[in-house]
Design goal:
By secondary structure, the protein is an all-beta fold. The chain has no helices and 24 strands. 0% of the residues lie in helices and 48% in strands. The strands form 7 sheets. Strands 12, 13, 15, 16 and 23 form a 5-stranded antiparallel β-sheet that branches. Strands 6-5-8-9 form a 4-stranded antiparallel β-sheet, with no helix packed on it. Strands 20-19-22-24 form a 4-stranded antiparallel β-sheet, with no helix packed on it.
Length: 315
C-alpha cells in the first residue's frame, strides 16, 4: 500500500461488538508479458501473462489507445480485438482488477499493424507439415513447426491445446515457448496457419510433450501404488488417486503400450484415496499384460502415467 494513500476502516456491528477491518486499497501489479500480433486485416490478438495467485486478480481490462475495448475474467489471458482497419497501427495496454475494485497501472503499451485486406480470399493456408515439442522445465514447453504456405501470405500461426487456442505467433515465427503449464503433466499441441482473411489451415501434426515433476512442489499427478491381480476371467486393479485438489473422475488405461479403455466414475460414485476397478478379460490363459494408467486433471489435461505393472491372465 502506498504510504500516502488514506486508510478506510469499515466497522460491522456483530451482536453488540464492533468488528473493524481496513478496506483493501492496494492495487494488483500491472500484467506482465504483454504482446500484440495482427491475426488478420481486421483483428489483433493480444496476450499477457497470468497473474500470480497471491495478487488476488479477478479480471482484466484491455485498452486500445486508452479506450476500454474488452473486459475478461481472471482465467482469460488473451483476446482477439476485432473490427479494426487494414494497414493500420494499433496500441494496446492491459490493466488487472481485484475483488475490491482496485485497478493496476497499465504497464508498457504494445503495438501491432494490421496487414492489407485481400478481396474474396477464400483459400486457407496449408497446414504446417511438422510439429515438434519438448519440455522446457516443469512449467513450460518449447514448440516448433514448419512454415505454411498461402496464396496471399500467412499472417499468423495459432497454437491449440485440444480445441482451445492458447497462443498466436507472427508470420515469420516457427517456434515459441509456452509457459504456465503444470509439472508432471502430458500435453498435446497442434498448430494452424492463418491468412489475412482469417482463413485457417487444418491442424498440423500433434506434438506430445510431458513436463517433468517439480521437485519439492507438491504431489505429482501420477496414480500411485498400482497393483494388478489376475483371477479367472478378470483382472482387478487398485491404485491411489493423485492429489490434484479435486476428486478424479476419469482415468485412461493402457495395456501393452496401447490405450485400451477409459475408466469413468459417475456422480456420487467417485472414489477418493484408494481406487479399485475390475476388468473382464477374454484372452487366453498365459497372456501377459503390462498395465499403466493416468488421470484426467481438473484442467482437462492428462497427468503422468503410473508405474507399469505386469500380470499374467488365468482361465
Amino acid at each position: 500500500m502506498r504510504p500516502s494513500a488514506p486508510t478506510l476502516v469499515l466497522c460491522l456491528a456483530l451482536g453488540g461488538l464492533a468488528a473493524c477491518t481496513a478496506a483493501d486499497t492496494d492495487p494488483p501489479p500491472a500484467p506482465a508479458g504483454l504482446t500484440a500480433q495482427a491475426g488478420s486485416a481486421t483483428s489483433v490478438h493480444v496476450m499477457w501473462d497470468a497473474a500470480a495467485d497471491r495478487d488476488g486478480v479477478t479480471g482484466y481490462q484491455v485498452f486500445q489507445a486508452g479506450r476500454l475495448v474488452r473486459e475478461l475474467p481472471a482465467e482469460k489471458t488473451m483476446v482477439d480485438v476485432a473490427g479494426l482497419a487494414p494497414q493500420t497501427a494499433y496500441s494496446f495496454t492491459v490493466r488487472a482488477k481485484d475483488a475490491a475494485g482496485n485497478r493496476s497501472g497499465a504497464g508498457p503499451a504494445v503495438t501491432a499493424t494490421t496487414p492489407a485486406a485481400t478481396a474474396e480470399d477464400r483459400a486457407a493456408p496449408t497446414a504446417p507439415a511438422t510439429t515438434t515439442g519438448s519440455a522446457a522445465g516443469p512449467r513450460a514447453a518449447r514448440l516448433s513447426w514448419s512454415p505454411a504456405t498461402d496464396d496471399t501470405g500467412v499472417t499468423a500461426y495459432d497454437v491449440y491445446q485440444g480445441d482451445a487456442r492458447i497462443h498466436t505467433a507472427g508470420p515469420g515465427e516457427t517456434s515459441t515457448v509456452l509457459a504456465g503449464l503444470q509439472p508432471d503433466t502430458a500435453y498435446s499441441f497442434t498448430v494452424r496457419a492463418r491468412d489475412g482473411a482469417d482463413n485457417s489451415s487444418p491442424d498440423g501434426p500433434a506434438a506430445e510433450v510431458a513436463t517433468p515433476p517439480a521437485s519439492g512442489r507438491g504431489a505429482g499427478t501420477a496414480p500411485a501404488d498400482l497393483t494388478a491381480t489376475a483371477s479367472p476371467g478378470a483382472v482387478t486393479l487398485s491404485w491411489t488417486a493423485p492429489d490434484t485438489g479435486r476428486a478424479t473422475t476419469e482415468y485412461e488405461l493402457h495395456v501393452n503400450g496401447r490405450l485400451t479403455t477409459t475408466v469413468q466414475f459417475g456422480a456420487g460414485a467417485v472414489p477418493s484415496g484408494r481406487v479399485e476397478h475390475r476388468l473382464t478379460v477374454a484372452e487366453p490363459t498365459g497372456t501377459v499384460w503390462r498395465i499403466k494408467l493416468r488421470a484426467r486433471l481438473p484442467d482437462g489435461n492428462w497427468g503422468a502415467f503410473s508405474a507399469e505393472r505386469e500380470v499374467t491372465l488365468t482361465a
